[in-house]
Design brief:
The complex is a heterodimer of chains A (189) and B (382). With 189 residues, chain A is an alpha+beta fold. Helices cover 22% and strands 13% of the residues of chain A. Chain B has one domain. Chain B has 14 helices and eight strands. Chain B is globular, with a radius of gyration of 22 Å. Classes of the chains: A alpha+beta (189), B mainly alpha (382).
Chain lengths: 189, 382
């Protein structure tokens, strides 16, 4: 006895109408679409508007970065303006691209935080903007701002940022933590 | 006699200059048009800085063509180890030269009378007149087909001599495709040849200067609309451009028959392709779009259907005809680029089936209908 075995069909049969299979009308339709886009964009360029979605990168920057975009690093500061960083090197250790270089200094006058960074540099030619440095920091001393560093250059040595450029904390935009920690954050046992 | 030589030289310089300019310019037009069609800006970073200043001329990226040329000329001339030296060396020229020669029979303007154009030369030239065409040959269209058929040999030489399987496959594809479409192209033009009863391109353009039914310009596309579509399709296929770019399909054959070519030798193939766009544009304009003719315009001036006539001086007529031809060619080139950036590539069997099973019968039907219509009129050529 023969068993009728219907092979399962995993594909769709082409369902083109005769009109579509005659090819030329569909080609004309396609050309109408592309030439329509061309004429629309060309009209915009000619009338002095921008007919493209492209951003001219170094001259222009996109305005639509996400609010939580991991861009340029920011070192948070104490009320007197010194960096919160205690030069513990945890960010430099966790950094997968090994782009952070910290040179620690010793300040015997500040008993609570005797270590501070003399030099804190980030090589943006290699930074992968993963945010692990922010996660690793025990002091909340490094954060990432929404703005990108934007250092287009033909020379990789110009893509380093140091303490001067990184100490740009602006608590109006970047949420400041109360300092010293307020009563709400202090837990009583 | 000397006058003829001078005029011929001027024509040759003009035609070669126009072709080379078109070839260079089309690389830019192709980039920019593709960019605008896909919401992009296109190449615009190459610039020329005026010396001793910080003033940079960008000109919408026009200098990218120059940058490409310099890059091609300065690149390493890498040649494969095992290859047929002679064939390898001459193949780019076999592709490039016939493309330039085709333009010799294409008329790019009406009749030029140097005596009337420049009064100072009236004494020397007298009342001699020259058709603005490098070679006024009776066999014009045959020359076009003879030369454009030669490029197949170059492509196949390149593919064969490179000793590379991708090159060889590309060359085989180029050969079969170009021979197929050459045939279709010849058949589509035959209908037009029957309509105008001549294969002299200058005469064909002159026959297109009148009007049909009093209103329509008597262009080839009015007599042979189907022939025009088929001719343009076959010409694009002949030029091996997308959607018919199988001989150099990047995703399948690296670069097809010129895979093993580097630097300016490869540049010659590319340049030949871009000049051939202009050649296809010029041929289509000459055969189907009335060449240098504007509607209702003759060598004397405009004569509109209402009966109004505007007389024009000879200088204006010559300039209008030259510019008209260039503008028409540019529009056809732009249309080819539009096609190139709109349609996907055919499969290889589809290309040949399209040529032999669709375009050839349609071209034959077009020819038959034309013959029957002409015979039923029995008034000779239109």
């Amino acid at each position: 006895m023969k068993v009728a075995y219907a092979r399962k069909r995993y594909w769709n049969e082409p369902t083109l109408t005769l009109w579509e299979r005659s090819y030329l009308p569909e080609i004309i339709r396609g050309l109408a679409v592309t030439s329509g886009v061309f004429l629309r964009n060309m009209g915009r360029w000619i009338t002095g508007r921008k007919g493209a979605l492209t951003t001219y990168y170094p001259e222009e920057q996109r305005a639509d970065f996400a609010p939580l975009n991991r861009g340029k690093h920011v070192l948070t500061q104490r009320p007197d303006g010194r960096p919160q960083c205690i030069a513990c090197n945890m960010c430099a250790t966790v950094c997968p691209a090994k782009v952070i270089e910290i040179e620690a200094g010793f300040d015997p006058d500040d008993v609570a935080h005797p270590k501070f960074p003399v030099r804190f540099e980030i090589d943006y030619s290699r930074c992968i903007f993963c945010g692990l440095c922010v996660e690793a920091c025990p002091e909340d001393a490094i954060r990432m701002a929404r703005e990108i560093p934007s250092l287009p250059s033909a020379n990789r040595h110009e893509m380093w940022l140091g303490l001067d450029e990184l100490l740009t904390w602006n608590p109006q935009r970047d949420v400041a933590k109360p300092y010293p920690p307020g009563p709400t954050t202090r837990r009583t046992p | 006699m000397t006058q003829d030589l001078v005029v011929a030289l001027v024509f040759i310089v003009y035609a070669m200059g126009a072709l080379i300019t078109f070839g260079t310019l089309l690389t830019w037009v192709e980039r920019k048009q593709a960019a605008v069609m896909s919401d992009r800006i296109g190449a615009n970073r190459a610039y020329v800085r005026i010396p001793f200043t910080q003033f940079k001329l960008i000109w919408w990226g026009l200098f990218h063509g120059v940058a490409d040329g310099i890059k091609m000329l300065l690149k390493e001339n890498f040649t494969p180890q095992s290859y047929d030296r002679v064939a390898y060396a001459i193949a780019p020229w076999v592709v490039f030269t016939p493309v330039l020669l085709v333009f010799a029979v294409v008329p790019f303007g009406g009749t030029l009378e140097p005596g009337r154009l420049v009064p100072a030369l009236a004494g020397w030239f007298g009342d001699r007149s020259y058709p603005m065409q490098i070679a006024r040959l009776d066999a014009g269209l045959l020359i076009v087909f003879a030369f454009s058929g030669l490029t197949v040999i170059g492509a196949m030489l390149a593919g064969w001599s490179s000793a590379n399987k991708f090159s060889l496959l590309g060359a085989l594809r180029a050969g079969s495709q170009m021979i197929s479409y050459e045939l279709v192209m010849g058949l589509t033009v035959l209908g037009l040849v029957m309509t105008f009863a001549t294969i002299d391109l200058g005469a064909i353009v002159q026959r297109q200067s009148g009007t049909v039914l009093g209103v329509l310009p008597a262009w080839g596309i009015v007599y042979q609309p189907l022939g025009a579509v088929l001719f343009l399709t076959a010409a694009i296929a002949e030029n091996k451009r997308i959607p018919f770019d199988l001989p150099e399909a990047e995703s399948e054959l690296i670069a097809g028959y010129y895979t093993e070519y580097t630097s300016m030798k490869m540049g010659l193939f590319m340049f030949a392709e871009f000049i051939e766009i202009a050649i296809v544009g010029a041929l289509f304009t000459t055969l189907f779009l009335g060449g240098y003719n504007l509607p209702y315009m003759s060598d004397a001036g405009f004569a509109f259907p209402g009966g109004t006539t505007v007389a024009l001086p000879h200088v204006a007529v010559v300039l209008i005809q030259l510019v008209t031809f260039l503008v028409k060619v540019m529009l056809v080139c732009s249309f080819q680029i539009l096609i190139r950036w709109s349609l996907p590539r055919f499969r290889y069997d589809q290309v040949l089936r399209f040529a032999w099973k669709f375009m050839l019968p349609v071209a034959l039907a077009n020819l038959t209908v034309t013959a029957i219509v002409l015979w039923s009129h029995l008034k000779g050529p239109l």
